[in-house]
From TrEMBL:
SUPFAM superfamilies: TPR-like. The keyword Repeat applies. One of its GO terms (biological process) is RNA modification. PPR repeats lie at residues 174-208, 276-310, 346-376, 377-411, 514-548. Transmembrane segments: none annotated. Gene3D superfamilies: Tetratricopeptide repeat domain (1.25.40.10). It comes from Macleaya cordata (Five-seeded plume-poppy). Keywords: Repeat. This is Pentatricopeptide repeat. NCBIfam families: PPR. The keyword Repeat applies. GO terms for molecular function: RNA binding.
Length: 600
DNA sequence: ATAGGGTTAG
């Protein structure tokens, strides 16, 4: 017997739309069918049902064939299933389940749990749905363990409506079922829902454990008030004594890193005694996301010295660090290291390699990786397009984009940002306008701030400053500092004093401590021979205590401070450098500079 | 005996 081996996309989609109704329908149908089947062989009814559902009919037959008494083999069969699943042989466990079913044996609750778990590991929704129907038919639908497993299955398959339905239909809940539903929302990008459910859970008598905290902390990374939520949860974690649990700490470190609070992430990480691979991976990723590439590499080296084996996750982050530090030598070494374990076939690693090579200026090597990679997704293509765009090879970037479309992949917003960047660097104004329109009409995407920023830049660079200004007015977002900076730069190139003055004013509102707008404005005045105004700008800079140009910017100071603050002090000049940085760092904090997130 | 957790790329 074959249960749901055919997983056609069409079936999955149609099941996705109405699965909950579907299995209740199966439920009532099966009881009706059961009777029919016993009295007269009205197989036609059953077959009609089967073809409607697109599911293998022999299963439907056996579903409706009623219960058979326990077999002597049952004990043996069922322990085989659980053994196989325990060892991670999920496919084999399911096969074994099939044969159990063929023998007409009614599985126990325990077996259903194991089998549902195997389905969720294999993402076999189709089989899972049929098993759910069978569970209802047998009358196990009130079992706590089975329901938790069902919640887990639907969550893994991104069917949160069904997961939630199962959850709320349960008569009673425990830690596991609450954690399952919270995890489901967290993992499918509904962090807000996960937090709401967590608060709901706190109102019951069931207490969260370290599994719950792990999930809910990872959920709050997606929240707007992430830092506040995380800090609150952190307090609970300490109070409840979970602060040495590796998973809890990993999600905390990740959350703090993504909020830009790298110092807090570091201190949490350092106070953990036993560090496993995932925790170290999280810290390395945190360093590289916060542009602390040297620290990321240092931890990577230490990890290998400590005997922890790097994984694909590790390589992704470490290559990212190499890219932002533009250290080709190290990048190549890591590349050859990961080739030995076959990690270069991983699409995440391949994207990082492409990114690293293009940032290091070896775009042809990046292309080699791209061509070698078999499993190509959207991100991989975008990495390569971005690489070409930033290397000034606009034509190649656009050609690649056309290939992407020809291959039937659907570009997303980030991909269009890459394409528009290519147009900017190549000076293709008309093409840029064309692609923006295509994005809206042909691909049904709504442009966001990043794409508008590209367009403002494109118009500005090509001297259409009025048009750029109009776009900034028309777009449904407030222009951010990036846009004003680009616009101000274009004003300088095209000697637009009035527009430049306004841009500088707006920019200073957004970034009152940045000297850059003053400098550019002074240059604009100087180009126009307006020496009085130049003097005035310089005076304003002096009054505000601006740092002279040529020194480090606040961002650089913050970066360097963190690099050195966690360094050892064995280097002879370290104390001196550290003292200087420390002074600058506090000066910066007093000036009101706060860290900005990477992708805002 | 059976169910739940953390990390990666553009």
């Amino acid at each position: 017997m074959v249960i749901g081996s055919a997983r056609t996309p069409r079936l999955v989609i149609s099941l996705k739309q109405r699965s909950f109704t579907f299995y209740y329908w199966v439920h009532s149908f099966n009881f009706a069918a059961h009777e029919l089947f016993d009295k007269s062989p009205q197989r036609d009814e059953i077959h009609r049902f089967s073809s409607f559902c697109d599911i293998n009919s022999s299963f439907q037959n056996s579903l409706c064939s009623g219960f058979v008494n326990y077999d002597n083999d049952q004990q043996g069969n069922e322990s085989t299933i659980s053994e196989l699943a325990k060892q991670g042989h999920f496919q084999e466990a399911l096969k074994s389940f099939h044969s159990l079913h063929d023998l007409g044996i009614k599985p126990t609750k325990f077996t259903f749990c194991t089998v549902l778990n195997s389905c969720s590991k294999l993402l076999d929704l189709c089989l899972g749905l049929q098993i759910h129907a069978r569970i209802i038919q047998i009358g196990y639908e009130d079992n706590l363990f089975i329901n938790s497993a069902l919640v887990g299955l639907y969550s893994k398959c991104d069917m949160m409506v069904d997961a939630r339905n199962v959850f709320y239909r349960m008569r009673n809940h425990d830690q596991v079922s609450w954690t399952s539903i919270i995890t489901g929302f967290a993992q499918n990008g509904h962090g807000k829902e996960a937090l709401v459910l967590f608060k709901e859970m706190l109102e019951t008598s069931i207490r969260p454990d370290c599994f719950t905290f792990t999930s809910v902390i990872s959920a709050c990374t997606q929240s707007e008030a992430a830092l506040e939520e995380a800090a609150l949860l952190h307090v609970h974690v300490i109070k409840l004594g979970f602060e040495q649990n590796s998973s809890v700490i990993s999600s905390l470190v990740d959350c703090y890193s993504k909020c830009g609070k790298i110092d807090r992430a570091i201190s949490v990480f350092n106070s953990t005694l036993e560090k496993d691979t995932i925790l170290v991976n999280t810290m390395i990723a945190g360093y590289s996301q916060n542009l602390l590439g040297e620290e990321a590499l240092r931890l990577f080296t230490k990890m290998r010295k400590d005997g922890l084996c790097p994984t694909d996750y590790t390589f992704g982050s470490v290559l990212n660090a190499c890219g932002s530090l533009t250290i080709l030598q190290q990048g190549r070494q890591i590349h050859s290291l990961l080739t030995k374990t076959g990690s270069d076939r991983n699409v995440f690693v391949a994207s990082s390699l492409i990114d690293m090579y293009s940032k290091c200026g070896t775009i042809d090597e990046a292309r080699k990786i791209f061509d070698q990679t078999i499993q190509r997704n959207n991100v991989l293509w975008t990495s390569m397009i971005t690489g070409y765009a930033q290397s000034g090879r606009g034509e190649d970037a656009l050609e690649l984009f056309e290939n992407l479309v020809r291959e039937g992949l659907k570009p997303d917003r980030i991909c269009f940002t890459a394409v528009l960047t290519a147009c900017n660097h190549g000076g293709f104004l008309d093409k840029g306008i064309e692609y923006l329109n295509k994005m809206k009409t042909y691909f049904g995407l709504v442009p966001e701030l990043d794409q508008f920023a590209c367009m403002v830049d494109l118009y500005g660079r090509n001297g259409h400053l009025r048009k750029a200004r109009e776009l900034m007015e028309e777009m449904p977002f407030e222009p951010n500092a990036v846009i004003w900076t680009s616009f101000l730069g274009s004003c300088r190139v095209h000697r637009e004093v009035e527009l430049g003055r306004e841009a500088a004013k707006q920019l200073l509102k957004l970034e009152p401590n940045s000297p850059a707008p003053y400098v550019t404005l002074a240059n604009i005045y100087a180009d126009a021979g307006m020496w009085e105004e130049v003097k005035e700008v310089r005076k304003m800079m002096k009054e505000k205590g601006m740092r002279k140009s040529g020194g480090w910017s606040w961002v650089e100071i913050e970066q360097k401070f963190h690099v050195f603050s966690v360094n050892d002090t064995s280097h002879p000049q370290m104390q001196e450098i550290y003292a200087e940085l420390y002074k600058l760092y506090f000066e910066m904090r007093e000036a009101g500079y706060t860290h900005k997130r990477k992708y805002v």
